[in-house]
Amino acid sequence: MEQLLALPIVRSFLPQGRKEIHLGDRLFYLSLKSLSVLIILSLCALVYLLWGMATPAFAKFGWGFFTTSTWNPVTEAFGSLAFIYGTVVSSLLGLLIATPVSIAVALFLNEVAPRPVGTVLGFMVEMLAAIPSVVFGIWGVFSLAPWVRATLQPAIQSYAGWLPIFQGPPYGVGMFTAGIILAIMITPTISSICREVFRTIPFTVREGALALGGTKWEMMKMAILDSSRSGIFGATVLGLGRAFGETMAVTMVIGNRPQISASLFAPAQTMASIIANEYAEASSDMHHSALAAVGLALFLVSLLFNGGARFVLWRTDRKFRSRA
Amino acid sequence: MNEPLPSFDLQRFDGRRRWKNRLAIVVLTLLTTLAVWPFVSILKYVIERGYPALTWTLFTNLPKPVGEAGGGIANALVGSITMVALASVVGIPAGIFAGAYLSEFGRGKVATTLRFTCDLLVSVPSIIIGLFAYTLIVIPMKGFSAYAGAFAMLMIQVPMVTRTTEEILKLVPQHLREAGLALGIPRWKVILRIVLRGSLSGLTTGVMLALARILGETAPLLFTAFNNRFWSEKLNQPTASLPVLIYTYAISPFDDWHAQAWAAALVLVLFVLLLNVATRLILGRRADIRH
User: Fold this and answer.
1) pLDDT for the residue numbered B275
2) Which residue in chain B has the smallest CA separation from A302?
């Protein structure tokens, strides 16, 4: 044995401490690590530069930037309240439509649909997420907006026209159309996360509900919906985060008018769409800075919502893992 | 469940529950149809309106002034492909190696921060990425350029590829790595030749999804690559791209531009769906092998 160990070829395979033996390994590790650090630094640079661009506008307008709604590049008076309002209202509108639909899609595909039907419909919903935003936009301009103008708005107004939120002339483009298109765009996100959440529920729970004599719907209500509340909440918050940042489709159908109006059918403007509309043509530094400030606010809000949603989802995931 | 129940009251109560159940299933079905409907409608519109305008000259000609026949989208097509290629040359290797770092050495502070960074970057609205590229590239270079557009695409692509690569490399069984190391192969060779090469098809799917995503991105190109009605001879000139062309043509008031926008949308949707379907097929085949 000792003779064997003395052989150089055998000795070369023996462990020689915990340091990486090969120079190549150390170089490889270092280069991968520096690449990773570079990617991290690029995010830092993004935040830093965005902050730097936005500073002049913040310095000049202070909190008034978020509480006033005059937006006049000529006189260099900038307040972003109308865009914040547009973003929040259109996104909430989208969420209001998308949440029940998404939960229904997830329940139908996971629990009700026969396998082939579920596969095909699930595929179509997922492909909806792959379609570029600008294609939603062109479809919105030529198909959805005319339909809203000619069919949906008169129908709603004939039933609930006395409500101030449904009044006003039919433009086709506006807050409501933007809300619908956002709902369509975030439905795949919310429904696919809901499907994941529903899948974490053990089959025994479902079987228990059915064994107690529950119908399928009662099973879905008791065994699935009630126990996935926080997961569904996380999914909707993530959907809201996506809706906030959605740019092109919204820009094309919201009508691009920086105003706060009571009617949902009136044209509006969002934080993302004002940047898309004006940044390339902005002439003064203050105009650029004000748009960057809107961008920074949008960035922070989407960060908050995405981070929050991920935290909620991570916690639900852990809860079920520990139970199983 | 279909057999008559002993008590009359119970039966009536049960009947109501069953009707409720049926109603619920009908509602779920209807809502799912409603959710799928936009996909069908978008495809129908894009094909119906895009296909008639899909002529050979569309792919070979430059845009022409309104009213003149035979305008094309050649420069936008080439511009899109150029910028995607430019971004991918850097972005794909960077994403794959960063993903390999996460999966193979992913324990330290750097790895945790990188994971967090990628999650953030993926969820940042793409128009913000455009603002970043504007400040970092457009301002110093004093003009819109293909470089700036490609950089914005890069920032979207790298985090996507990194995260999918990590997920895919984690599927490689640990014993394959150990087998390689036991043969005395250096770690870097194990990673390159065994771990990465063995997951090639999985990595391809991640890359294709990222390509499909950046190909359709519009918002970050609006003020980085901008637009161009002519050929961009150099990479430091404003460059046209398919999504930006669709946007500007769609919101214009001219019918023949609308037709071209639909044709461009058809081309874009075909590309993107093809990449996504191919991804599905590759992943489906892999799943079959494993069973």
Assistant:
1) 94
2) B124
Joined tokens for residue A9: 């070829």
Whole-angstrom distance, CA of residue A82 vs CA of residue A88? 10
**B175 phi and psi, to 5 degrees?**
-70, -20
Question: Residue B234 — pLDDT band, cuts 50, 70, 90?
Answer: confident
Cross-chain CB nearest to B25 (options A135, A216, A276):
A216
Q: According to DSSP H, which parts of A140-270 are helical?
A: 145-147, 153-160, 175-199, 203-211, 216-219, 229-245, 248-253
Task: State the Cα–Cα distance between residues B241 and B225, nearest whole angstrom.
Answer: 8
pTM of the model: 0.90
Picking from A218, A80, A10, the residue whose alpha carbon sits closest to that of residue B14 is A218
What band does A312 get if pLDDT is binned at 50, 70 and 90? confident
Residues 241-300, chain A, touching B (beta carbon < 8 A):
241-242, 244-248, 252, 272, 275-276, 279-280, 291-292, 295, 298-299
- The shortest C-alpha distance from A120 to chain B (Å) reads 10
Residue with tokens 């050979």: B56
- The span from the CA of B102 to the CA of A36, in Å, is 9
Which residue from A minimizes the CA distance to B42? A139
CB atoms under 10 Å from CB of B291, counted, come to 4
Taking alpha carbons only, the member of A117, A259, A27, A316 closest to residue B36 is: A117
Option in A12, A108, A246 nearest B28 (CB): A108
Q: Is the dihedral of CA A180, A181, A182, A187 positive or negative?
A: positive
A94 to each of A110, A130, A190, A242, B127, how far by Cα in Å? 23, 18, 12, 11, 20
- Across chain A, mean pLDDT equals 89
Q: Residue A78 is inside which H or E element, if any?
A: strand A77-78
pLDDT at B13 (0 to 100): 67
Q: How many CB atoms lie within 10 A of CB A286?
A: 17
Contact A268, A93 (CB under 8 A): no
Q: List the structure tokens of A316.
A: 């639900």
Q: Give the pair of three-digit tokens for residue B102.
A: 């996460």
Amino acid identity for residue B53 in this structure: A
Cα dihedral: B251, B257, B260, B266 (round 10): 20
